[in-house]
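FAQ: What does the model actually see?

It sees only this:
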Amino acid sequence: MIVPHRIPRGYDRYGHSPPCDILSHDINDIEKSIGNRAMSALCALAFLGPVPSLVSHVVVVKHMQSPRSIPSSYRQRLARGSDLDGPGYVPTEQTFATDAGRDLMFAGLTQDRAIEILTGEGKDDRYIAAERLQFFPSEKATRALIDTVQQGPTNDLSEKVTRRKCVEVLGRLQGKYLREHVVETVRQCLHDPDPYTVEVAVWTLSELQVTEYDLLEEITSVLHQKEVNKRVVIQTLMQLGHRPAADRIQAFTNSDDLSVASAANAFLFRIDGDEAHMTAVQKVLSSENLNARRSAIEDIGKVQHFPSLSKVTVAPNSLVLRSRAVRSILDHALSSGEATLDDVTMKQIDLLIWDHPFDLNLLGQANETRKSRQLERCIQRLHKNDALPAYLATKTLIEDHQSERAASMIQESFVAAPYFDYFAAYHLFKAIGWVGGAAGSFDLLIHQFRTLPPRFFNHQLAAGLSLAVLGKQDAIEDLFKVATSSKIWELKYACLIAVEKLNDGGSLRRHFYDDQDILIRSRARSAMDFDHLWARWR
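And it is asked to produce this:
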């Protein structure tokens, strides 16, 4: 059995929360069924790459932690070999820096050894071997993946998951080797009895950038398969620009599944430019369903709809998801001449990076009962995987609990966790600053700011901004050092806000005056300060 390095829980191999469409059903329902801690553990397995279904995560969990960490009812169903009702598979690329770090767990697994494991008779570790082959683009690796897929459908759950992973990795290799053979192999999977394999095949064909009309129609026909997630099909057809599918996709614009409706409307907007479609997508941003909001943000980013920028900026979802969409929108708007980086636009970016709960659209929700406003309960809600309750809790902490006691308890909550909780850490770091800090706040925040690697840029910027909120001028040197060495625009932008909050005398702004990144360069050259950010809560 392959033994991985210690696996931090709750984030993917890039340091992000899981791609927004891996969990294509309501994450809250999943959370209720398997528990918060198990959920974090399963999400951590995205280190191994996006997995076709929740079952896939569980299959790999057995290599990494005690089965006691999975609820007994779930273990029993897994033991029976049943293919659980789980989320569909729609991997979303998460690109924010070239040095973010990849393949952190199995660096010692060579191509030859991975192929040996994948093509061997044993079942354990074949999934890991298939995942590993994405880092060895070669004809030999491609051949091994194809051979595994062509072994055909199986009822064995472990084999089924391995086969899905092989189809996915063929997409990640993008047909650089044996392209015709790869396309035909994946095409056959469009008719696989396993709906998750079908979804992976659809996504892989989008990565292969297929153009043949008959094949595009074959992908479109998958919309009629009952158990297949329609969102991945619609997204693929949009990416491949298959306009003849518009009439069939029209039927999904009013789907009860808001993530599907959002994708359908985004597709049609890409085809006909009718703003009514994007109005429908914007409405999804107000859904209480976490995954629906995630989907809408992603769709707006994909079609690069500039009029939606202000709504994405304040949506109650993770900063990482919003910043990725905002950057996609702005890059397109600036290059096409649709927009300029005027003060209005830059204020939107300021608000995005500052990420104060008072500025967000919290969907009209509030903590109105005495119990919901209790300090302990608010801290507990900072650990929610859904950003909305975490932001609501932060807002209540600011309103009711600005004290050293609150900051100390927040710090204790972070330190007491048995693992680095990706979902909670960001909100915990920000909350320490918002409530005023306590003894030990500087040491905790500066340590995290100095030591977190680039894949945790959002936590790093949270720590940096909190240091600024607390007025810790001793942090200026560290903020300047990180800002001038980082390639991550969000982190550089946050450092600029932070040092100016600490009155650095404009040194970082002058350094960024000729920065290669247009957002950083333009903000540094702007005469506008950042006072508007803290004016509302001063």
